[in-house]
Amino acid sequence: MSIFLQSKLPHVGTTIFSTMSQLAAQHGAINLSQGFPDFDCPPALVELVSQAMRAGHNQYAPGIGISALREKISQKTQELNGHFAHPDTEITVTSGATEALFAAIAAVVQPGDEVLVLEPCYDSYVPAIELSGGVPVFVPLRFPDYSVDWQQVEDKLTEKTRLLIVNSPHNPSGAVWQQEDLAELTRLSQKYPFLILSDEVYEHMVFDGQPHRSILTVPALAQRAFVVSSFGKTYHTTGWKVGYCIAPAPLTVEFRKVHQYLTFSTATPFQHALAAYLEHQEHYLTLPQFYQQKRDLFASLLQPSKFELLPCAGTYFQLARYRHISDQPDVAFSQWLTKEAGVAVIPVSVFYHDGQDHGVIRFCFAKKEETLRAAAERLCQL
Known about the structure:
PyrdxlP-dep_Trfase_major, globular, 7-stranded mixed beta sheet, Aspartate Aminotransferase, domain 1, alpha/beta, 15 helices, Aspartate Aminotransferase, domain 2, kynurenine-oxoglutarate transaminase activity, 4-stranded antiparallel beta sheet
C-alpha cells in the first residue's frame, strides 16, 4: 500500500545557498555566494573552547544558556544600546540565530495570524511563518536603495497582524536603518498592537561612521520585541551555531517554551568560551572598520569591471547590477557566472516570494584579501 504524504512546505526545496556552493565546488569556482568567512576566528577564542573542554564543560548546559554568558550579554546590551535585559528572565541563548527566529515566530503566531515581511528577506522567515499556520504578508522595500516604505507597511496592517519582521543591517541588500525608520515604527506601534521580531545579526557591521540603530534603543519598541543576535557573525564562527534572543519577560516565557523542544540547549564549551571572550570588547568594537576595509577593497577591485555596485552601508554583502554584461534572469546569470567565470554568487530574486528580478546579484566579501583579489580578477575580464 502506497503512503501519501502531504508536504507542509510544498514550495520549499534545496536552498539556493547549498545549490550555489555545490555548483562552485563542482566547477572549481571562487565561492562568494554563501555568507560565511573563509578566514578563521580569533585564536584566543579557539583556546578558550579547548580550556572549557579540558575543564569538563562537556555536558548539557542549562536550556536558557549558562549564566555567565547571559550576564555578559546583558552587560554588553546595556553598554551599547542603553537597554537593561535581565539575564535570568529576558535573555535566552540559542543554537544559532535561525533557531531563535523560528522559536520567536512559533511562540506567538497562531493559525490565521498575519505576519508582515519586508522583501527581499532572509529565507527562513516565511517557512517558519507557514509552519506555524501564519499568513505572510509581503511589503517590498524600495529599489534600488532598499529603504522601507512605511506608508505601504501601514497600509498592510490589519486587526489580524500579529508580527512585523524587520532586519537591519539588512540581508541581502546591506541597507541600514536611519533614525526616521525607528520613529516611523514607533509611531505605528502606538496605533496598532503588533509584536516585532528584529533580526540584528549584522549589528556590528555598520559602516561609514553610522551607528547600529537597534530596536532596543527605543523603550516603546523593546517592550514588544524579540531581538535576535548572532555570535557566529560577530566572531567568524558560523559553524558553532550560537546566537541569542532578547525579549521582555512575558515574551521570553513563551519563547522558551518553544526553544526547549527545538534544541533544549546549546553547545556548552562554546558558551563558556564566548562568555570569557566577551571581555575583549575591542573585537566587536573594531568589527565595523574590519569589514569596511574589505568592502572598500572589493569595490575598488571591481571598479574596472562592468558591474554596477549598489550602496552597501552594512553586513558583509555587496549587491551589484550586471545589465552591461548580460540580459539573462539573475538565476541563470548566477549559474553562468559560476560555471564560465568561476565566481559563485547569489541571485537576489530568490529573496522574494514571487521571484522579483531586478537584475541584481549578491557577493559576500567576508573573505581573505587574496580571495577577493582572485575573484575580482575573473570578474573584471567579463
